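Worked example 3. Consider a protein that binds NDP.
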Amino acid sequence: MINYLDTLTAVFGYPVSENPTVVMMEAAFKTTGLNWKYLTIEVRPDDLKKVVRGARAMGFKGFNLTIPHKTAVVQYLDEITPAAKLIGAVNTVHHMEGRLIGDNTDGKGFIKALEEEKIGIEGKNIQILGAGGAARAISVELALAGATNVYIVNRNAEKGLDLSNHIGYNTAAQSAFVPWLEKIDIKEDVDILINATSIGLYPDESQPVIKWESLPAATLVCDVIPNPPNTGFLQSAKAHGARTIDGLGMLVYQGAIGFKMWTGYEAPVREMKQALEGAFGKT
Ligand code: NDP
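Given these inputs, the predicted complex is written out as structure tokens:
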């Protein structure tokens, strides 16, 4: 007998209709032969408390949170992981033995995507554009994974400084804030440059303006934007000879970590990625 109440999962967001997670999660359930369902549910901020209570009562095995609920949800959970606490936001909740446990898999997903390309973090110098949710998750996880320097570049200086201070105080990495200039300079010792802003997310075709001639040779350039995967930022980096990694890997792996948490099975990452590429039209 199938217990449907044990097999519901979801993402809660507002707005949420464009959220692509359902595409890869349904592909993962199908590939694994699980009779599970992933729902995309629009939840207004005022309703989040009731919805989390409802998910618990209905036996949802877990759920994802997206804008604007990643921070607000913390107060309705029983526990959050130390990394999620340090990041200050939760994107994945696991309902286990009656308890709702919050984690943040965005930064871990990013690191997994690097590992897939055989790139380690230990001792690396990172320059990250942005200080929002994605930048925060990635920079904290990179610092915890052994990065030496984390340079934060952000348009809003207060937010950027706050994030660099947070990393400097709470991790072994050194961190500095770099002002967002009209043309962004790349620090001379940078190994990995990351766009973690929302610039370039479909339908926006713009890109952060970089002084590409300052890009050190052998610097890896990454984008968190999954749609389109081949952003203008990555196209410019390639034109300047850089190796690049797009935002699809991070998206797949942050979901794969949640999938394993909920189901206990290794996620079929290849099929998840194919499903997303189909949805986004990888170019
Ligand atoms: P937030 O709204 O929390 O942060 C947005 C960031 O982008 C801020 O640092 C903001 O700067 C900056 N920004 C936006 N527009 C501009 C601009 N015109 N000029 C300069 N800076 C700008 O969003 P998130 O961090 O949650 O998400 C960022 C992106 O990451 C999204 O596009 C999302 O799709 C992607 N993402 C990808 C994931 C993946 O798995 N691949 C997972 C999570 C997110 P300021 O502080 O100055 O406003």
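Take a moment to read the result before moving on. The chain has a mean pLDDT of 95. The first strand starts at residue 8 and ends at 13.
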